[in-house]
Predict the 3D structure of the following.
Amino acid sequence: MQQSKYMKWFAVAATIGMVLILLGGALVTKTDSGMGCGRNWPDCNGSLIPKEITPEVLIEFSHRVVTGSVSIFIFILSFWSWRKLGHVREVKFLSFMALFFLIAQALIGAAQVLWGQGDFILALHFGISLISFAAVLLLTLIIFEVDQKFNVNSVHIGHALKWHTIGVTIYSYLVVYTGALVRHTNSSLICPDWPLCHNNSVGIPDNFYEWVQMGHRLAAGLIFVWLLIIMVHTVKYYKNQRVLYWGWIIAFILVCLQVIAGMSVVLTRLNIIIALLHTLFISLLFGLLCYMILLISRSNQDNKIN
């Protein structure tokens, strides 16, 4: 029992650490601090501890320290979970995913520092980190035995909700990628107005950067509508299944906050706090959607339910 308690606290710490990695990576990108340590990795400007501290060096070096420290946490958590909870169907898979994608994002980050990468490759960096975060979050929920707070066998997910859940989760990853592409192509303020580009006039984008920005806005608008449809569907047909009922309501609230934050990023001309909230909301939303996928894998699917 005492060991289980320690594992829970450790899992919470690892999950918070993954959030800090996501926010730290976003901060590096938004402040153009990626070259704060020069073309050096894992050292910083030729030394293990940077000798000259500038804002860019502080941000980049801090991100590396956090990533390295949290990586140790994730490794221990994955090994610990594998040993103690390996009998739970999803634990081994999630442990592997958490470690694999954490290492992948670290390697992409290192490759960017040492050799440079194209914008389309760099846009994958956040998405890969997001998968690792989702795996750690689900592992933490399993450790807390969330599924035992309600009877999993009583959760019935109909055919329509099942495919909506899978579809919107996959689509949300596309939205994440388009958002990351906006940052890495420096397209954030190419369209200074909102929701349309220039003076909110209707028209076809004039260049690649406007296509990137308006493509992301369109993708975000579609996921907003999709989650609204799912929430209405769930409220209508799943009132007696509280996890699904409240889960989709929270998902819609998160996408609303995400849209508001995205609008505010443009209107405040890249306010850093709002920009980081924008990253936080999409991370939490993706984690929640992945949890809904987990529920599908554990539930009794009932075609009689819509």
Observations:
- The chain has a mean pLDDT of 88.
- The chain has two domains: 1-149, 151-306.
- Residues 55-85 form the longest helix (31 residues).
